[in-house]
Structures are given as structure tokens and as C-alpha cells.
């Protein structure tokens, strides 16, 4: 059975980016399982009293139906360096619960904190979210992500980031990279100078 996840930011009792989580959740149910009826996750997620203060990962596991909902305290990451790794076969267009391939790529990071996954010569994502790149005027995100994240959707819709194809070799023409996901946006963005990105090994 194909299991999927929605990982939602819960901060002080508030669920964030629900418009985009609902969109991705319902699209996945329709495209993978042929289920046309839409569900508003906000209406069916019951938040325990002990999770109404602080920041938690609200993790919804589902297939045809919602299997379980978990609340896990969020532990911030420190990311100061990135390493380019290649996988031309990886497929993660839906947020699958099975992350073995992503985890195997992450293990190739060496002394770096995170990875940039290159597929067919193009920049996709890192292991925990989408990527953006600063050219001195605008933030750009690859038009070839593995997964269209909810934070990415929101920032594109609001005109705060822009989309284009980014070949691996063009990374170093930017000034810095940023990592975005449901927990990291412009308020607490991981910004990594391109000098701290390790190139592909020959």
C-alpha cells in the first residue's frame, strides 16, 4: 500500500498553510486513489491540550483514508553547508511516507549539513525541503522540484520567489541558497553562501 504524509506546522495551537496542505492532500487522494471528495484537514485534526503551546510537527499519515495523526515536538536544525549529490532516477512527486531513497542521498553529505539533489543535470530539492537562490535582486526556486512544498506554493503565489530552471553549474552564479519548508520561511530562513556549497565530485 502507498502511504503518504502531510507534515503541518502547529505553533501555539494554530495549524499553518492549511490552504496548501489541503490542496496537496486532496490532489494526492484523487490522483493516486481515485477519491474525488475533498477533506478539510483543519476540521478533522484534533489538537491535544498539551500541544497547544510551542511548535510541533503535526504528521498525518494517509492512503485512501487517514491512518493516524501524530504530534511531535519540532527540533530546529542548524544548516551552514550543502553538498551536491546526483540521482537521475529519484521520484518524489508526492509526499511519500517511504523516504529511504532521500535518506540514502542524505548519507552522502560527508562533512556538510545538507544536500542539494541534482537530477538530469538540474537542481531539485534538498532532503528536507525546497531550495531558493538569491541573485542580488530576487529569490529564485528551481522549476524542477522533486516535491512542490506548501511553503514553496505560498511564496510563489505571493510573488516573493520566482521560478526557473537552474542547471547544477549555475548554482555558483548566485550569492546564496536558502532552504524552505513548512517550518522555515523568510522569518527564519537558512541562508547558505554559495562558497559553503560543495561541488559535485568528479
How do the helices and strands line up, and which of them pair or pack?
Elements (H helix, E strand, L loop, with lengths): L3 E8 L2 E2 L2 H16 L7 H4 L10 E8 L3 E8 L8 E5 L13 H7 L7 E6 L2 E2 L6 E5 L4 E4 L7 H8 L4 E3 L11 E5 L9 E4 L3 E2 L4
In short:
The protein has helices spanning 18-33, 41-44, 100-106, 150-157, and strands spanning 4-11, 14-15, 55-62, 66-73, 82-86, 114-119, 122-123, 130-134, 139-142, 162-164, 176-180, 190-193, 197-198. With 202 residues, the chain is α+β, with helices and mostly antiparallel strands.
The whole-number mean of residue pLDDT values reads: 96
Q: Write down the secondary-structure element order.
A: EEHHEEEHEEEEHEEEE
Summed up, the helix count is: 4
N- and C-termini, Cα separation:
38 Å
- Weakly predicted, low-confidence segments: none
Strand content: 25-35%
Helix/strand-derived category reads alpha+beta
Rg, Å, rounded:
17 Å
Shape: globular
Largest sheet: 5 strands, mixed
The helix content is 10-25%
Strand order in space, largest sheet: 10-9-8-11-12
Number of strands: 13
Description:
The structure is a single chain. The protein is 17% helix and 31% strand. Helix 4 (150-157) links the parallel strand 9 and strand 10. With 202 residues, it is an alpha+beta fold.
List keywords for this structure.
202 residues, alpha+beta, 4 helices, 5-stranded mixed beta sheet, 4-stranded antiparallel beta sheet
Amino acid at each position: 500500500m502507498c502511504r503518504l504524509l502531510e507534515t503541518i506546522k502547529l505553533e501555539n495551537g494554530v495549524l499553518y498553510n492549511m490552504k496548501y496542505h489541503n490542496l496537496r492532500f486532496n490532489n494526492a487522494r484523487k490522483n493516486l486513489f481515485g477519491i474525488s471528495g475533498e477533506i478539510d484537514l483543519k476540521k478533522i485534526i484534533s489538537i491535544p491540550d498539551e500541544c497547544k503551546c510551542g511548535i510541533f510537527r503535526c504528521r498525518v499519515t494517509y492512503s485512501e483514508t487517514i491512518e493516524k495523526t501524530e504530534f511531535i515536538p519540532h527540533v530546529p536544525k542548524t544548516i551552514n553547508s550543502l553538498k551536491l549529490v546526483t540521482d537521475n532516477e529519484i521520484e518524489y512527486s508526492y509526499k511519500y511516507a517511504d523516504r529511504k531513497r532521500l535518506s540514502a542521498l542524505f548519507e552522502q553529505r560527508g562533512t556538510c549539513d545538507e544536500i542539494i539533489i541534482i537530477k538530469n543535470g538540474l537542481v531539485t530539492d534538498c532532503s528536507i525541503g525546497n531550495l531558493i537562490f538569491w541573485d542580488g535582486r530576487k529569490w529564485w526556486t528551481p522549476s524542477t522540484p522533486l516535491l512542490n512544498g506548501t511553503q514553496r506554493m505560498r511564496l510563489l503565489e505571493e510573488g516573493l520567489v520566482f521560478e526557473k530552471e537552474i542547471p547544477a553549474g549555475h548554482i555558483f552564479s548566485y550569492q546564496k541558497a536558502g532552504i524552505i519548508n513548512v517550518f522555515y520561511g523568510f522569518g527564519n530562513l537558512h541562508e547558505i553562501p554559495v562558497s559553503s556549497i560543495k561541488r559535485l565530485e568528479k
